[in-house]
Amino acid sequence: MAVIAYREAIAQALREEMERDDRVFLMGEEVALYQGAFKCSQGLYERFGEKRVIDAPISEAGFAGLGVGAAMAGLRPVIEFMTMNFAVLALDQVINNAAKIYSMSAGQFRCPAVFRGPGGAAHQLGAQHSQCLEAQYAHIPGLKVVMPATPRDVKGLLKSAIRDESPVICIEGETLYGLKGDVPDNEYIIPIGEAEVKREGKDVTLVTWSKMVYATLDAAELLAKEGIDAEVIDLRTVRPVDKAAILTSVAKTNRCVVIEEGWPWAGVGASVAALVSTTGFDDLDAPVERVHGIDGPMPYAKSLEHLALPTAETIAAAAKRACYRE
Amino acid sequence: MALSRETQIGLLSRMLLVRRFEERAGQQYGLGKINGFCHLYIGQEAVAVGCLTALDKDDYAISGYREHGHALVRGVPPGAVMAELFGKATGTSRGKGGSMHIMSAEHRFLGGYGIVGGQVPLGLGYAFASKYRGDSTVVQAFLGDAAVNQGVYYESLNMAALWNLPLICIIENNGYGMGTAVARASAVTELYKKSEGLGVHSEWVDGMDVIKVREAAERLVERAREESKPAVLECRTYRFRGHSMADPATYRTKEELEAYRKQDPVLSLRDRLKITEDKWKAMEAEVKAVVDASVKFADESPEPDASELMQYIHPTNDNNAPERA
Ligand SMILES: Cc1ncc(C[n+]2csc(CCOP(=O)(O)OP(=O)(O)O)c2C)c(N)n1
Ligand SMILES: [Mg+2]
Known about the structure:
The structure holds 2 protein chains of 2 kinds. By secondary structure, chain A is α/β, with parallel strands linked by helices. Helix content of chain A is 37%, strand content 18%. Chain B is globular. The A-B interface holds A 29-30, 33-34, 37, 55, 57-62, 85-86, 88-89, 122-129, 264-265, 289-290, 292, 294-297, 299-304, 307-308 and B 35-37, 84, 87-88, 93, 95-101, 113-117, 146-147, 149-151, 177-180, 184-186, 251, 303-304, 306, 308-310, 313, 319-325.
């Protein structure tokens, strides 16, 4: 095991896949000479040159569409968005073309492209730069969406994403890039669609993903002090979701809290809550609780931003409600 | 139509205000009073001052995220701008916006937008509304050299030309989009030429020379007002600091920076106008007092109240409330 940062794990995944398969290339703003706005492509331009590590103009719709076309043509594009807020400009290409070409052509064309970039709030970046947009993608049939929380997971999932035959969206955590963790020395991949139990417990299931894993693990510690033994599930992939992992855990704990950083309405958390409340209904001893960001644009001011986001305390409080321990 | 000495001194003092305000903002960022992204305008003052002073009070201006200077020149009080940077309740957006989203309806300064190129069609919409209502207001939309690579810029200009709308796009060509030099992002580096094929009158001007910028802007504003015709003005300028506070700007040479510093838009106009040392000191003192007051105002202003969190989501306050807030 080596301890490396999340951003280094991304660079390793890209490097290994580019070594393995010469159809893989990386394109995005500032990915080559500057080595990525968040330094996720450190060393890649030097190693692979300008043919395969390409600085794009600020033309998101254009270079995302290029990725779709190049994937249809048989290449393996990795398209980096500087942040997912800017990927909104390219939603047309991802939703209308990447997600649908396999179906529209009845299998004649496929789009094995990866679209990746950071999502979520960082520190006081304001309304346009703090968004959790995974629901935009998780909603779309034909796409897969991974949201790894650890260096090990981002490396293994990004490698799977590059090898996948479908378009995969990899949403990274903007505040996770510096986070360090164990990464296996040997070659490995993590399959898309598999959740992981991050902490075992018997009293309540806490389901989350991406950077909320950390606040949720902290909440589990707070709950332990009060005698509540929480199980924490990191979905890691939000489409397709590992339904079995969620339902198995709820069958054991009979209580569930779904935690997400973003908006509550019509999102991933709502779908997970619906799954547990319907398919898992017979196992529940209490209504499913939800914790999420405020239902509004992110304010800039530090004090307001803090109030807008879930914390270990608000998560623990929801878990206590689910356990009827208010 | 040469500008009077008095007018020129007025331009100089506005540029000086922007310069000193931005220097102070950078310093306050270092002190942790300003957070998030903060993009300073230092080096580009001649563009905002030259262009915006060619507008009437009733006209409109819109910009990207490097917009503190545009707000100040439009007449937004420096205290309200600084307070917004501090995230205070007295800021232009009550602390909700931050550095990238300074806006003031009262001053017809429409902001302050963080998605590259996204402001251009909003300017187009104001130009459309101007013609629709027949009020002969004109819109200046500022964008960077790298924003010219967004498709929406061409879509907007095509519609402006097609429908004869009074939109003036001002390209602030400072040579770089973040760390990427213009020639690495655009096949045609004379950016004004890219809109000629759309049927939009396009020209360029030395963006370090406020007098030249002002003269070009006046002509284009008059044309937009009289004939309701769009235009593009590429201002060739330079930013003396990094892209944002986080950028050490290692992608450019010291020599390049020094060469542009010799064309400093503020100091070169001061020298050309042969401002005496005493007069300059007085101008500096006046500006310093304004900037000091803006910081004091921001420092002493309250944080936004927690109750503001769910405000300004809908004008009618009927937000789709979650199950448990
Ligand atoms: C759509 C979009 N893509 C990427 C970014 C990230 N970004 C912010 S500023 C910038 C560079 C823009 O350069 P330019 O248009 O030349 O303006 P300047 O910063 O030089 O004033 C980039 C890539 C963004 N904010 N929006
Ligand atoms: Mg630029």
